[in-house]
Design goal:
InterPro entries: MetI-like, MetI-like_sf
Strand content: under 5%
Distance between the termini: 44 Å
Number of helices: 15
CATH architecture: Orthogonal Bundle
Largest sheet: none
Helix content: over 70%
Radius of gyration: 26 Å
Shape: flat
Subcellular location: Cell membrane
CATH superfamily: MetI-like
Number of domains: 1
CATH class: Mainly Alpha
Order of helices and strands: HHHHHHHHHHHHHHH
Organism: Occultella aeris
CATH topology: MetI-like fold
Protein name: L-arabinose transport system permease protein AraQ
Number of strands: 0
Membrane topology: Multi-pass membrane protein
Amino acid sequence: MTGTTRHRTLGSRPGASSWRTSRLFANVLTYAFLIAGGLLMLGPFVFSAMTAVKTPKQFNTTWPLTLPAPATVENFTALFSEQYNFVVPIAVTAQVVLVLVLGQMLTSILAAYAFAQLSFPGRDTLFWVYLSTLMIPAVVTIIPLYSMMTTLGLKNSFAGLVVPFLFGSPYAIFLLRESFRSTPSDVLDAAKIDGAGVLRRLWQVMVPMNKPILATLLLITVVSQWNNFMWPLIIAPAPEWNVITVATAALQTQYNGNWTLVMAATTIALAPLVILFLVFQKQITSSLGVTGVR
């Protein structure tokens, strides 16, 4: 019996049709569940954008999911007027994120390379002790950090916003260390034979070979620092040092919700993160695949 005949015989069995029907139903049910989950996740973002282009009267007199008729940009223009001056929080946030991304990426790469490839006494013990700080809730360290920053005179200052988070993070160092450890040793040995020193092997061999992981870490760092709220609210309550999250929360007062303004500010805050994700989505997918294989 040939392969074609065998395939036709199996396909003509009584249970084959019901099996295909069950599999089709399972696939339809799976995709329906995924689509429903995706719509549920996108719902808040769509609601934010729709509310941002409504007038306060439209928002208060219509169903929340009603399309704006007509759409307006007065909420965005109001944010950049002299009354709210939303340019300052955006500028402060961008500067904070830029400094912290550069600081954390640089120090995390150096520390991860030391823990992964260099030999020194107590290396593994020091790494696991440092990694154990991930189990400490961030809220526990806020009061000691605040006391230290105020003692140093860094309250309501740019330095107070960035210094506590400038020198890497346990999660970033752990992620990079595991990635660096999986780099083939033959490549590093070849670079060493060619006369490459420690730093040259790091920047010319290790970093280019781990670009997907670095891109993912870059995105995680930007998102976490862009969305940081608690520490900026505590250490820099002055309006001139408000980041975008604190400025957005300040739009909602005790007696006036200003929901259309809040949603406009939220939309502005979301836009850079969405663009960043679209730019780095291929690298993120690659890093997930590489991490899964490793």
